[in-house]
Write the structure tokens for this entry.
Amino acid sequence: MKNHFSKTRSSTVADCLQRGLYVIVISMAFFLPGLAGAEELGNVCTKTSAGVLKSCRSSAEADYLLAKARCDNSPADSGCLQQALANKNETLRDCKDQFDVRKDACGPLGPAAYDPEIDPANFTTKIDNPLFPLKPGTTFIYEGQTSQGLEHDEFIVTHKTRVIMGVTCVEVRDRVRLDGKLAEDTLDWFAQDLDGNVWYFGENTHELENGLITTIDGSFVAGVEGAKPGIVMEAHPRVSDFYRQEFDLGNAEDFAKVTGLNASVTVPFGSFTNCLKTRETTPLEPDLLEDKLYCPGIGNVETIDRVTGETVSLLAIQ
């Protein structure tokens, strides 16, 4: 967590008048009613959303203060402070957008704290849910043309396992290439309970550019620093079901909603019917909206970006 340094009230006001920071003050005042109202609600979900909003705003302020200090030491750069302010405004807008997604999700999720009970005795050592089967030694290959280039994704179900929260999880390696260059390399950990629900217990992800790691954002392990597992595939999906697929506040927060049970789809690997259709969102990327199709005996066969129209489809299973 970054430190938050502040000046005296009088000097801060003077700076605001000199630098034009009143724009920020007004924008913050505009956002505050939604936050105050959220905190007054007596449910943990909404209070949590408000808490993350406060954290996000504090981080934006800390980043601005650091940028401002750098600008003070770069007097030749006349646009430095203006850019710092623009970055802060953009971050504050992102904070509000993320809050809106979390707040809206509290309706279907309910008011209670998210704290799934994980009993290792309630889990199996294999994953055979027909809509998300993970047989060790199997590789699912996906391809699709995106704005970033030709995406080639290899979803490799390994023979390795990892024990998380006492549960033995299947390890999957997910490698994504763009125009032949490795862009993402991730280890995912899944486990299935006795009822047939497939849980997601964490991931170790690396995004790369020119062979160098650019970020590990999104990595989490359930049971560590408040992170908790989510359900990636229900045993008995029903239309309108809404659930968390992962839970690590500010880092990994995917939601899924069941939108159909009888979808038909044709991909390079074949044609399928009676497929499950879900819509996935995340507050961390408020503009992200994806549809995913899962077909019996196969699993995920297609992912559709509803914003761009880009599609990544199942090419082969090895």
